[in-house]
TrEMBL record:
<dbReference type="Pfam" id="PF00480">
    <property type="entry name" value="ROK"/>
</dbReference>
<dbReference type="InterPro" id="IPR043129">
    <property type="entry name" value="ATPase_NBD"/>
</dbReference>
<comment type="similarity">
    <text>Belongs to the ROK (NagC/XylR) family.</text>
</comment>
<dbReference type="InterPro" id="IPR000600">
    <property type="entry name" value="ROK"/>
</dbReference>
<protein>
    <submittedName>
        <fullName>ROK family protein</fullName>
    </submittedName>
</protein>
Amino acid sequence: MKYYAGIDIGGTRIKMGIIDETGHVCVQENEATQSTRSDLMKQIGDFIKQHQEYTMEGVGISMPGIAKDDGFMQTSGAIKCFLKHNMKQEMEAYLKLPVVIENDSKSASIAEKWIGEAKDLDNFVCLTLGTAVGGAIYMDGKLVRGLGGMAGEFGIALCGKEKGNYNEQSFSYSAAVVAGLCRNYSYRVKERVLDAKEIYRRAHENDQDAIACIEQFYHDVALLLINTAVIIAPDAILIGGGISANEEAMHGIISAYEEIIQDYHVLSLVEMPKILACKLKNEAGMIGAARKLMLMKEKI
């Protein structure tokens, strides 16, 4: 059996796992993400050293941002210490192991295609709704990376028509959980609320502001789904991120999507993609990063 380190770096937490060649997570740890390059590399290196009973074939790293094929981080989200750095080269030099770098949403889609909800799909889109909106596109069974790895970055697509203030007109500022739902509710009630669960709790207690913001969130996500559907026309759109485990939220999003389809005459006449929740949840990034390394080594 071959083993791979799968590392999923988030802005606040880092998930580190040992993945075998079947996709089974043998070991996993969840820690606070270190903020400097040296500390972050040491954190990953220490994890690998602590599990030397597994002979590692290499390290797959999933993280926010737009990564070029050679591992250069054009953007890096909350992991600012690697912005404009070649993370692959630096990690390989430090860890003395083969390393691949992939965007977190693309990693999740790789995992879902391998052993998740999309294993029988050749054409699908994966949308992750979290702090921002991420995404990935599979066509003809292959991940589409596009120019510089930017394909599928739906969160930076614009949904407004005003000139200027483009950040606030991006889909991340409307359809994301934190930058969208939580930000909009916080502005509305003039209170910093960054936990969507708290907004849902208040909605269940008949907080009208919470109810209105959640309904707007469903509509905004549905608009993103519609745009994705008509531009790419996949067989299915998978929704990932913590919100995908919330059955109430998934029902609300799908209902808003179906309502637009019925109200928009031309869409009511054509076959539209089905909406599915991702299967692998919080392990998807680790598994997908490890799987990308497996595929890379198979080509060598």
